[in-house]
Fold each of these.
Amino acid sequence: MQITFDQVSHIYAKGTPFERVALHNISLTIPSGSFVGIIGHTGSGKSTLIQHLNGLLMPSTGQITLGDAVITPKRRLPHAQRRDIGLVFQYPEHQLFEETVAKDVAFGPLNFDLPTEMVEARVKESLEIVGLDYATIKDRSPFHLSGGQMRRVALAGVLAMQPKVLVLDEPTAGLDPAGRVTILEGIYRIHREQNLTTLLVTHSMEEAARYADYLLVMAQGQVALQGKPEEVFMHVNRLRELSLDVPETVALVSQMNQMLPDKASLPSSLYREEELIAHLLERLSVPKEG
Ligand SMILES: Nc1ncnc2c1ncn2[C@@H]1O[C@H](COP(=O)(O)OP(=O)(O)OP(=O)(O)O)[C@@H](O)[C@H]1O
């Protein structure tokens, strides 16, 4: 599903002493099937932006188009289309509430009156996507799982709705490195298999570089930079001005280029570690393993 924002602003507590402009005239297009990394300093407007996608927030001005639905300050996203947008909040495990994992994951699809067998199939499939074994976990209490497992159950609950767009607000916050990889690899796999439009809010440039094919860099309620990762990472100085890191590979390529003579310099489009290694091996003509 294609998403566009056309001159969207959002003002919290308008007309009160607490008024706060959180988004200023945002215009952007997210093509169907893309994986968008949304990066930015704390308070830059990332969560405000994504909460417009499922109707939790309404634009103060401007217009948002989600597929063929149009949202304006006066026109809400129709209820039937809300289920197309799967929004995974920060710390989604806080919203688990059922007595078993299977019931929790089934909650959304049951609310949409799907037949029981279909719900069961979706629960099984969604748990497996997030790397949990249905038979082992289905009857357990979600509250007796590890933090990482709880997070995965919560994510499965959103996937069981079979959304057309998946929006994730820092899904790996607070997890250990192994837990982060499991969650992100699961998300990336369904994004690829189902061509699912995916928006990932993250504080980690490394995560953005690994998974996203398009980046939005937010600063003070505006889009400071946007484009393919290699385009955005060329603006190393601008990113640093915004107190954002660049991925280690980008920093390394930029450092090596300062040392190498011009004709030997490395392409600045290299931003993933494995691509840099492949490039260096090719230059050295070392045959790759396997
Ligand atoms: N409910 C609210 N009422 C008033 N102001 C708010 C509200 N929610 C957010 N803001 C303000 O809007 C601005 C953008 O906040 P937002 O949560 O969208 O940023 P963020 O980039 O998601 O930050 P973080 O990375 O910390 O989650 C901030 O200045 C914040 O203080």
Amino acid sequence: MSADQPHIDISPPISRAEAVAVALERHGWCCYPDFIDPATVMALAAECQELDRRGNLRPATTGRAPGRHAGVLRGDRTHWFEAPALSDAQRVLWGRLQALRHVLNRRLMLGLEELEAHYALYPPGAGYARHFDRFRDDDARVVSSVIYLNHDWKSDDGGALRLHLPDGPYDIAPRGGMLVMFLSAEIEHEVLPALRNRLSVAGWFRRRSLT
Ligand SMILES: O=C(O)CCC(=O)C(=O)O
Ligand SMILES: [Fe+2]
């Protein structure tokens, strides 16, 4: 290679985070199995279940207005991560998501300044109707992420995340450790009801709000 040739290093192995950034740029979404290690997934699942046993998961709302009725739209119960007051398991996941934020900013120049995340538990039969993650009254959400915490999920347990892509619907089973990411303003999606509890951490990478 001559000295004046630009050298762009895209040779493998690229990191998982970089693979996610490349896929996001090309397709607007991506899914990455086993993105989070099984021990962390187990610890997060145990914590989510314990919070639910203690009544600390609350019926989810939609939009920013507190208490906005969501009952017909979504049936999950949630608990927000309250950084910097994070549990050990939350801190591991938070670190991975922040690392991802830096890579997305470096590779895609998205200007993502903040992260917000919550546990979500969908009891059997609960779903989330077709929607976009970007609110009408707040355009700060740029990239959505979901990490699933479900051990040994079977295809007939239901509970798929259905992405509505230009080519048609695409279903992703919520298997433990899987990361799904997509552009919040562009990919419409829904959660199909499941036969068993369906656990996850949903997160949003935000830029400074323009509205
Ligand atoms: O849990 C999922 O698969 C997606 C959840 C979702 O769409 C949301 O919380 O906005
Ligand atoms: Fe969503």
